[in-house]
């Protein structure tokens, strides 16, 4: 581990051209981290003057290449670059059966050796949990400073209990929490238009948790079956279904201004940060 | 049995089943829980070992949060969920002082705890030990497979949801099973379709066609699209849950998306059911309370398949 401080310095140098670094976290898997990361990247990159980079550090389950519709390519638009271990695998069946140290080495390489160039936003999509990948990315970016983390959850308590752990992780490693996004929040039947709770918020959902922990709730994104379809096709759902309530929710979150204890942060370029 | 050479606490366990998936949030813990309940209803003694150290869900699903693990002469006593002690649990959730505390551990520490879980828990006699895992193919999985190998685990149930993004992760998980020599008992497609409680329309919430893609990939026939709602009358006779063996030919075709001559590619699909989510939130016995749910026959048929594969009774 003695090369870590060295790597931190190198990464600090490398990240000088990267203005904002945002982690997307959740305690539980399958709550929509990659979907949110992808849409945040798409949304920010809609402004052609904003340079966006999306880094997928889910080494064992990289979803970003599929969701972004990329096979082997690493640049989607002129102003949106993507990096994932998925690009380094030779076949879709290739499993990355790696223990922690090897995963950490990969993350170091992603941060230090990828030529990110001039970037306004680096969005880092993470695997579920609070282990090697999370510790490593926070450690490697320690000197370069991370703006903060957006935490994704679904409304049910089984997810919230893991998210509370994730927030306790953020506090332990002094990572500012930019806010919480409640995903899969209500489902509107496309046939009868009535709403159901597929993942019922039996303990009040993200709203009550955010009040308890005094962190901002950035918004709620309803479950829309088109989101999964767009992700499977590798297209931006916000372009596929511009009028869907879920698109509006994404847009409002992307444009939202988050004020938290330790930082004042705005997504949009040109506005004040800190 | 190889275990005889090393008489650990797993010596009294007849069958070990791992529940795996590449992707998170596809329902590993749900399937583990319901499988355990279904096996219990069939008169079996079941243990669940939760090796998801950073996000343990099993204690909540059995409404056992806050229960403590005690030490006895022979090791850790698992947490029993019922008077009859027919289901016992072990999870890192029982070892934490505060439920919101994060287990911020790197691999080696996780590996050490998993080894301890395998060697130090006094399970006693069990028909089945279900091992619930975190998503991925990393430390926990390697540690678990390594530690359990001397006890010849029966195999793995691999859980997916229908969308291509999830199926991609499952393909990687199948590679993991192949590389580690773990037999795949079956692939379970969870959350396949949501039946609107207002109008009974079935929507593919998490995309569709994932099972078909997997079928094509595994080189097996795709027998049909999974439906959501099953006619409840078909299953009402099953409510006593001492279920008769369903003959192979009569097995509800809709709950078995695929059947295959190859050993590794059978799929049972479980539709998305908010009642199921709710009951797991509240730690109720879903199979007892909601035998008419569209998810029930699918869950039952998965348990039945396991029972069929392991006819031996605990003496």
Features:
heterodimer; A: 274 residues; alpha/beta; Rossmann fold; nine-stranded mixed sheet; 10 helices; 36% helix; B: 315 residues; ten-stranded mixed sheet; two-stranded antiparallel ribbon; 9 helices; globular; disordered N terminus; cytoplasm (chain B)
Largest interface: A-B, 65 and 65 residues
Rg over CA atoms of chain A: 18 Å
Strand content bin of chain A: 15-25%
Relevant CATH superfamily of chain B = P-loop containing nucleotide triphosphate hydrolases
Order of helices and strands of chain B: EHEHEEEEHEHEHEEHEEHHH
Number of domains of chain A: 1
Tertiary shape of chain A: globular
Instruction: Tell me about the largest β-sheet of chain B.
Output: 10 strands, mixed
Mean of all residue-level pLDDT scores of chain A: 89
Termini distance of chain A?
32 Å
Tell me how many strands of chain B there are. 12
Individual helix count of chain B: 9
GO molecular function (chain A): 4 iron, 4 sulfur cluster binding; ATP binding; ATP-dependent FeS chaperone activity; metal ion binding
Pfam families (chain A): ParA
Subcellular location (chain A): Cytoplasm; Nucleus
Protein name (chain A): Cytosolic Fe-S cluster assembly factor NUBP1 homolog
Could you characterize what this model shows?
The complex is a heterodimer of chains A (274) and B (315). The two termini of chain A are 32 Å apart. Chain A has helices at 4-14, 33-45, 64-67, 100-113, 132-140, 157-172, 205-213, 225-233, 237-240, 245-254; strands at residues 18-25, 52-56, 75-77, 80-84, 119-125, 148-153, 177-188, 195-196, 217-223, 257-259, 264-266. In chain A, the strands form two sheets. In chain A, strands 1, 2, 3, 4, 5, 6, 7, 8 and 9 form a nine-stranded mixed beta sheet that branches. Helices cover 36% and strands 22% of the residues of chain A. In chain A, helix 1 runs parallel beside helix 4 and helix 4 (100-113) runs parallel beside helix 5. Chain A is α/β, with parallel strands linked by helices and 274 residues long. Chain B has 315 residues and is α/β, with parallel strands linked by helices. Chain B has nine helices and twelve strands. Chain B has helices at residues 28-41, 58-61, 107-120, 139-148, 164-180, 210-218, 274-282, 286-289, 296-309, and strands at residues 13-20, 46-50, 70-72, 75-77, 79-80, 87-91, 126-132, 155-160, 184-195, 202-203, 256-258, 267-272. In chain B, helix 5 (164-180) links the parallel strand 8 (155-160) and strand 9. Chain B is globular and about 55 Å long. Chains A and B meet through helix 4, helix 5, helix 6 and helix 8 of A and helix 3, helix 4, helix 5 and helix 7 of B. Chain B: Keywords: 4Fe-4S, ATP-binding, Cytoplasm, Cytoskeleton, Iron, Iron-sulfur, Metal-binding, Nucleotide-binding, Nucleus. Chain B: It is found in: Cytoplasm, Cytoskeleton, Cilium axoneme; Cytoplasm, Cytoskeleton, Microtubule organizing center, Centrosome, Centriole; Nucleus; Cytoplasm, Cytoskeleton, Microtubule organizing center, Centrosome. Chain B: Its cofactor is [4Fe-4S] cluster. Chain B: [4Fe-4S] cluster binds at residues 196, 199.
């Amino acid at each position: 581990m003695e090369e870590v401080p060295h790597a931190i310095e190198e990464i600090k140098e490398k990240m000088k051209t990267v203005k904002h670094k945002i982690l997307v976290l959740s305690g539980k898997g399958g709550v929509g981290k990659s979907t949110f990361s992808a849409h945040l990247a798409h949304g920010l990159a809609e402004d052609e003057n904003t340079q966006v980079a999306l880094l997928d550090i889910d080494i064992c389950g990289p979803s970003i290449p599929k969701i972004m519709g990329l096979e082997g390519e690493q640049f989607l638009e002129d102003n949106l670059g993507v990096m994932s271990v998925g690009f380094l695998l030779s076949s879709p069946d290739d499993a990355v059966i790696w223990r922690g140290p090897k995963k950490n080495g990969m993350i170091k390489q992603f941060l230090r050796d990828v030529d990110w160039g001039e970037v306004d936003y680096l969005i880092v999509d993470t695997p579920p949990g609070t282990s090697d990948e999370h510790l490593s990315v926070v450690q490697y970016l320690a000197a370069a400073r991370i703006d903060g983390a957006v935490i994704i959850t679904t409304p049910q308590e089984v997810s919230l209990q893991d998210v509370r752990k994730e927030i306790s992780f953020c506090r332990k490693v002094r990572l500012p929490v930019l806010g919480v996004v409640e995903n899969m929040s209500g489902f509107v039947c496309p046939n009868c238009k009535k709403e159901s709770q597929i993942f019922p918020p039996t303990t009040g959902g993200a709203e009550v948790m955010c009040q308890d922990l005094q962190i901002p709730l950035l918004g709620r994104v309803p479950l829309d079956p088109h989101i999964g379809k767009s992700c499977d096709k590798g297209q931006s759902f916000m372009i596929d279904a511009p009028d869907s309530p879920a698109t509006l929710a994404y847009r409002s979150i992307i444009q939202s201004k988050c004020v938290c204890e330790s930082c004042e942060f705005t997504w949009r370029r040109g506005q004040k940060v800190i | 049995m190889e275990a005889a050479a090393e008489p650990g606490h797993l010596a009294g366990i007849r069958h070990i089943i791992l529940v795996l998936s590449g992707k998170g949030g596809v329902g590993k813990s749900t399937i583990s829980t319901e499988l355990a309940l279904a096996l219990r209803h069939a008169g079996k003694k079941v243990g669940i070992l939760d090796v998801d150290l950073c996000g343990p869900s099993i204690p909540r699903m059995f409404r056992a949060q806050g229960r403590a693990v005690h030490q006895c002469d022979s090791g850790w006593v698992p947490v029993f969920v019922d008077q009859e002690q027919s289901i016992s649990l072990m999870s890192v959730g029982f070892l934490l002082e505060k439920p919101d505390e994060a287990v911020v551990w790197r691999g080696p520490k996780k590996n050490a705890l998993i080894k301890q879980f395998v060697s130090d828990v006094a399970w006693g006699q069990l028909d089945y030990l279900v091992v619930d895992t975190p998503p991925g193919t990393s430390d926990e999985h390697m540690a678990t497979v390594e530690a359990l190998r001397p006890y010849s685990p029966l195999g793995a149930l691999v859980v997916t949801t229908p969308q291509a993004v999830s199926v991609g992760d499952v393909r990687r998980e199948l590679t993991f099973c192949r590389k580690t020599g773990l037999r795949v008992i079956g692939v379970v497609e969870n959350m396949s379709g949501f039946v609107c409680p207002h109008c009974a329309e079935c929507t593919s919430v998490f995309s569709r066609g994932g099972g078909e893609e997997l079928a094509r990939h595994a080189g097996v026939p795709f027998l049909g699209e999974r439906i959501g709602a099953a006619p409840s009358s078909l299953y009402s006779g099953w409510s006593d849950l001492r279920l008769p063996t369903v003959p192979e030919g009569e097995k509800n075709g809709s709950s078995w998306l695929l059947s295959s001559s190859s050993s590794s590619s059978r799929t049972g699909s479980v539709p998305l059911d908010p009642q199921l989510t709710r009951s797991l939130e509240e730690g109720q016995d879903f199979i007892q309370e909601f035998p008419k749910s569209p998810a029930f026959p699918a869950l039952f048929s998965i348990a039945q398949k396991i029972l069929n594969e392991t006819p031996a009774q605990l003496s």
